[in-house]
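The methods section describes the discrete structure representation at length, but only in general terms. Since the whole study asks how a given chain folds, the encoding of that fold should be made plain. An entry of this sort, consisting of the sequence and the corresponding backbone structure tokens, reads as follows:

. . .
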Amino acid sequence: MLRIVSLAALVLTFGLVPGAEAAPRAPQAAGSCSALATLDLSGIGTSSLAAAEVTREGHAFCSVTGYMTPQTRFEVLLPTTTWAGDYLQQGCGGFCGAVGLSLTDPSRTSGYQASYPPLANGQMVVAADDQGHESTTNIDTLWARNDPQLRVVFGYSSEHSLATTAKALIHAYYGRDAVHRYFDGVSDGGHEALDLAQRYPGDFDGIIAGAPANNWSPLAAMFQPWLARVNLDRNDHQILTAEKLPALHAAVLKACGAVITDPRACTFQPSSMRCPAGTDTPACLTAAQADVVRAFYRGPTDAQGRNLFDGGMPYGSELAWQLWAVQPAADPAAPNDTIAAGLGLNYLRNAAYWHNPPVTMGLRDVRFTAAEYQRQQEVGDIYDATNPDLRPFEARGGKIIVYHGWADQAIPPFATLNYYRAMLAYAGGYAAAQSFSRLYMIPGLYHCPCGQPADGSPPTVVDMMTPLVHWVRDGVPPGAVTSQAVLPFDPTRPAPRNDGLNSNYHFIGYASTYRTDAALWCRQDGPALRCTRHP
């Protein structure tokens, strides 16, 4: 297994730099745990329902649970005797719907982030919320259908509310504020992370945005349903099946290298695996299957071939397509039962329009046109976190690490490249942006294990908390973060241009998406939700 370890992690482990040692532990809490249940937080829209001393992972905490207006459930764990002074807020995944904070995964949703010792050892206050609704699965969106305000909570306000609530609880319990405040999120959590940096730049000192779903509306409305739609045959069964993926992945690695360091440089063509006439085995692709694979790599396009999202599935991600986009041949419901179909259709049925289509909307009802892309922005700018101007966050001393797996099957990494490239224009260029930001592109990393036996090709563990904390606390900027010496990535360098299917994307919405006035800010005014382009 390839374990990603930063230089900062080695420095901290062996104590090679003065001042890099762990912060001293705080004294016993100033307030009582039970008293937090009756703390009046109505002024910030919070009601704490319960506060009790609990033991988690062998450490003692005061657990405070409650809700923030209108109905966002949360939990804050405050160490009773072991707090070292810092606060960590964790993001969510998919459409969220559950609290479920973690002391082992700093992001709580990645499935591959390394455990961060101060968190695991009960030295940090940690908190998470359900983004405004309770669901049994994180692909459910029925909560959004008839409640525009809950869309706003999910879209951008829940994490600011939790940051405000946690700050009040920390001060009430310990008699002082956190020394440093961190946010770590992956996928939807990465979207939350960028929303915080863009909309609420004073909430956090350090932010990790992993595989961010920040260009949310076309990702959910175009990319995800596209993966299922192009894999439908005339009888609504899947064309490409999971049995084909091992041979396809092996062929891609043979053509592009055992570890693909930039899929844009790969020129593999699915047609090179065409089955001989009259045959169909797991070792080859039929003509129809080769067309599906090509469409996967290119991503959603309109009839003129224009990209309706920032790109498609990257070379090297093929083994992670199972469950996300394809199923075994014996599955009669596929591709309608894939994660991509569920995310896309549920979003379109319940959350994408002010006046929603029928709940029976299916894959054949989705329109992949420029007009439909534009229609998505009417509501989508509530969800999208694409404002490239992070100067207010920088001015407050914030540090942000953005990372994405080059083999991410669920959120193409090209969207992150586009966002960071746009951000550099406001930061004064790549060199200037390094004073407060880093972008890492991780070879072989999938979006998540998501039912796969590994989390990358090769299997990968990511540690981003250690370098972020070392940067915020000690002023030491991150360098290489892997044993392969993966350095910060500069997306302004000329991209490979060739006839590969991950090359030469031209996202139709680039100019209209990555701009400072793209976000919608909404407030409840009596029975109406009123939205403008300014807070």
Observations:
- Residues 148-174 form the longest helix (27 residues).
- The chain has 14 helices and 13 strands.
